[in-house]
Write a structure and sequence with these properties.
By secondary structure, the chain is α/β, with parallel strands linked by helices. It has one domain: 2,3-Dihydroxybiphenyl 1,2-Dioxygenase, domain 1, CATH 3.10.180.10. The chain is 17% helix and 31% strand.
Length: 123
Amino acid sequence: MSDLRIAVVGLWAEDVPATAHFYRDVIGLSLLAHHHGERPHFDLGGSYLTILKGRPVPAQDASPPHFPVVALAVEDLDAATERLRAHGVEMPWGVEGDAQSRWVKFYDPAGNLVELVQFEHRA
């Protein structure tokens, strides 16, 4: 089944409007003009992120302990972190990286651990 790809990623939030505002206005995702009732959908370039009503619960005894619920690729991590700072988003571990990528992790308003990652382009 090599033609499989992710269609929808769902995140839970007790305050759906505040969390949708965060993904639209802070992260910069495009909110689709139509969505299913109270479940906002964001375009991820052929896949979708939807915010569902509910209480997010972190994994118990997780290993590693700070692995994100979802990681979103960005072209310019420096610009993305500046945008997060401008909106008062705490980034508890700062910008991290290795030879292949750089990333920053933070919590959305619902408490979901999210990561923005920039992959290093090699010529």
